[in-house]
Design brief:
Structural class: alpha/beta
Strand content: 25-35%
Number of strands: 9
Number of helices: 9
Number of domains: 2
C-alpha cells in the first residue's frame, strides 16, 4: 500500500467567521493523481491552499509527510517545502523571457549553469522557438505551459494544480494533460488537481473527490467514482443533473 503523504483530521477553515471547509478525515497517498471536483465555491481551491501550506486550518490537523517527520505551515522546513510545487490558475510570470522564467527557480537555488536543463524543459513544453519571447507576449495556454515548466524543472515530489487548463483551447489542454501524465509516469510525482472538468478528472486521475458546500461528499478510485458512485449527489454531479 502506498505511503500516506497528507493526513487531514477534523479540518475546518473559515473566512470572516464563515466556515468554508469541513473535512473530518482525508488521506492522500504518495504517487497518486487526486482530482478535486465540484461546483464553484465548493471549497476546492481553499483545500488546495491548505495542502500547499499557504494557510493553516482554523481547526484540526494537517500533516504533510515529506521527510522523517510531518510538517505543517508553522513547522515548514525549507528543504522539504522545496519538494512541493504549485501551479495557479492565473500564473504570475516575470517580465522577462520564457527562458528566464523557466530558469528562475534554479537560479534561486544557486544553480547558474542550467542551460541544458532549461533547453530540455522548453522542448518538453514545445516552446523552444519561443525561448526568447517576453512573457507579456504569450497566449494564455503558453503562459500556463511556462508556469508548469517552472514548477517541473525543480523536480518536485508533489505538485498541486489549481484549474491548470481553465479557459484554454483544446490544443493547450491536450499539451498540459500530456505533460502531467508523463510527469506522473516517468517520475512518480504525486499530483493533486483542482478541476471543474469531470472529463479531465476521468482522463487523468487515479482517485477523484467531490466537494459540495465545503464538505467531502465522496472519494473513490476513478473507475468506481464514475461508474458506481455511492452517493446520489455524486451521480447527479457526474450526469450534470446537480443544479448548484
Amino acid at each position: 500500500m502506498s505511503k500516506v503523504l497528507y493526513a487531514l483530521k477534523d479540518v475546518e477553515h473559515s473566512y470572516a467567521q464563515r466556515t468554508v471547509l469541513r473535512i473530518p478525515a482525508l488521506d492522500i497517498y504518495t504517487g497518486e493523481i487526486l482530482a478535486l471536483v465540484g461546483p464553484s465555491g465548493a471549497g476546492k481551491s481553499t483545500l488546495l491552499r491548505l495542502l500547499a501550506l499557504l494557510e493553516a486550518p482554523v481547526r484540526g490537523t494537517l500533516h504533510l509527510h515529506l521527510g522523517e517527520r510531518p510538517i505543517t505551515k508553522a513547522d515548514a522546513r525549507i528543504h522539504e517545502r522545496r519538494q512541493l510545487g504549485m501551479v495557479f490558475q492565473r500564473p504570475i510570470l516575470l517580465s522577462r523571457s520564457v527562458r528566464a522564467n523557466v530558469a528562475y527557480g534554479l537560479r534561486l537555488r544557486g544553480q547558474r549553469d542550467a542551460n541544458a536543463q532549461v533547453d530540455a524543459m522548453l522542448e518538453r513544453i514545445a516552446m523552444r522557438d519561443l525561448a526568447d519571447a517576453r512573457a507579456q507576449t504569450l497566449s494564455g495556454g503558453e503562459l500556463q505551459r511556462v508556469a508548469l515548466a517552472r514548477a517541473l524543472i525543480l523536480e518536485p515530489r508533489l505538485l498541486l494544480l489549481d484549474e491548470p487548463t481553465a479557459n484554454l483551447d483544446p490544443h493547450n489542454v491536450h499539451l498540459i494533460e500530456t505533460l502531467l501524465r508523463e510527469q506522473h509516469e516517468r517520475y512518480h510525482t504525486t499530483l493533486v488537481l483542482v478541476t471543474h472538468n469531470v472529463f479531465q478528472a476521468k482522463r487523468l486521475a487515479t482517485r477523484v473527490a467531490l466537494l459540495l458546500d465545503g464538505e467531502l461528499v465522496e472519494i473513490a478510485p476513478s473507475a468506481a467514482f464514475f461508474e458506481s458512485p455511492r452517493d446520489p449527489r455524486t451521480a447527479a454531479f457526474i450526469s450534470g443533473d446537480l443544479i448548484y
